[in-house]
Amino acid sequence: MAISLGLSLSYSRFLSQERASKKIQEFQKNRINAIEFGLLNCVLGKARIPGTVPYPSEKQIKAILEIISPIEYYLSVHGPYRISATTDEPKKLQYSKSNLSKSLLIADWLGAHHLTFHSGSFKRKHNNAYVQKVLTEWEEWRQHKGYNAKMAPEVGGKYNSFADFFTLVEIAGTIDNCLITWDISHDFARGGKITTEDGVLNRLNLLDQTFDLNANNRLPMHFSGMEVGKAGEKHHTLLDHGTGVPWKLVFSVLKEQKYLDKVSLICESKVPKNEKIRGDSLSDVIRAREFLESDEFVKSYSGKPGHLDYYFN
Ligand SMILES: [Zn+2]
C-alpha cells in the first residue's frame, strides 16, 4: 500500500450500519484505503445543543467494524471542536482533556493510528510554551492510560488559530509519539509558503528531521478546496473552487521525493452551504488519485496566493 488516500466519514447517530455499508461499497469501488472518522460535533453526556450528537458507543463502533476491516484501511479519528490546548481556564482545560480521553478511547476501539484535533479553538493568544506544556502533560497521561492512538494536532487555517506548520512541528517534535496533522489548505490559507517547490521541500526536510515516518507511521495530511479571506480560512470548498489551493504542486513534490508512503492523505472538500456546484469529497479524491498515479508534475503555482500578504516561510 504505497498511497494512503481517503476521506472523512462523519460519525453521528444518523450513521446507520446500512448507510455506512453503502459508503464502504462506494469507497471500495474507488480504491479508497484511508478513512477518518469525524467526531467533530460530538459532546459528552446528553447532546442538548442543536447540531451536536453524543459520542458513539462501543457497540456502535463494533457494528461499524463489522463493515470496515481495519486491515484494509488506514484509520484515523478527527476529534471534536471541544478540545483546546490553548485555553488557560482550568475548567475548559479539564473539559478538553475529558473530550480528548473519549476520542482516544474511540480511536482505540477502531484501531485507528492517530487522533487529529484542532489545538486551539478558543482563540487565545498564541503561547507556544504554554501549549507545549499542555500537550506534554496530555502525552504523559495518554501513555499512562495506555491509549494506542497518537495525538496529531492540526495546522490551523485562520491566522489567529493555533498554529502554523513550523510552530506545530517544533512543539510536537519535543514530545515523544506526538505527530502533527498537516492540512495543506489551512497552511495555504494562513499564508504558509506552500506555493513554491522550495517551501514544500523545506517542510518535508523538517518533517524528516523531526519524525520517524514510514508506511506504518504516516504523517496525517488534509487537503481540500479553500476559500481564503483577510484572516485566513473562510471555509472549505471543492478543489477547483475557492482561492486555488496549490494541491497539484504539493502532490508533485510528494511524488518526486518518494514521500507518498510516509503520508496519509485525507480529503476534506465539501460543497459550501447555499452553493450549487457539482462534485463532492469523493470526486475530489478520485481526481487526487488520478493525479498522484499519473506522470504529471506541476512545478509552479499560477494562482493567487490568498489574501494574506504576510508569509511565514
Ligand atoms: Zn483539516
- At CATH level 3, the topology is TIM Barrel
Taking all Cα atoms into account, the compactness measure Rg is: 18 Å
Structural class: alpha/beta
What's the pLDDT, averaged over the residues? 91
Q: Runs with pLDDT <50, length 5+?
A: none
Structure, briefly:
This protein has helices at 17-29, 58-65, 90-110, 128-145, 165-172, 184-189, 197-210, 247-256, 281-293; strands at residues 4-10, 34-38, 42-43, 53-54, 74-78, 114-118, 150-154, 182-183, 219-223, 225-229, 232-237, 263-267.
Describe the structure.
The chain has 313 residues and is α/β, with parallel strands linked by helices. It has a single domain (4-293), classed as TIM Barrel (Alpha-Beta Barrel). The protein is 35% helix and 17% strand. The chain has 9 helices and 12 strands. The strands form 3 sheets. It has an 8-stranded parallel β-sheet. β5, α3 and β6 form a beta-alpha-beta unit. The protein is globular and about 50 Å long. The two termini are 32 Å apart. The model has no long low-confidence stretch (mean pLDDT 91). Residues 154, 183, 222, 268 line the site of zinc ion (ZN).
